[in-house]
Amino acid sequence: EVHILHTFLHDFYSARMNLLICGFIRPEYDYVDRDSLVQDIRTDIEVARRSLEREAYARLRNDEYLMVFEGGEHEADVAS
What we know:
This protein is mainly α. It contains four helices and no strands. It is globular and about 45 Å long.
């Protein structure tokens, strides 16, 4: 499951995205209620944000693979 942590200027529905899987946060669970799922997702996002601050991941932030999209568009054309 992918969590998009970036704020985009435009709707990117049906747009191509380049992804880089950097790690594993937790296994998939069957939740008994929605609130438990939402809380775990919030925790997952915080874990991901902290992980992405690590030097090994931070240097990937501007990797060309993640910034240039099919058709020559650049991340700056669609994101803030």
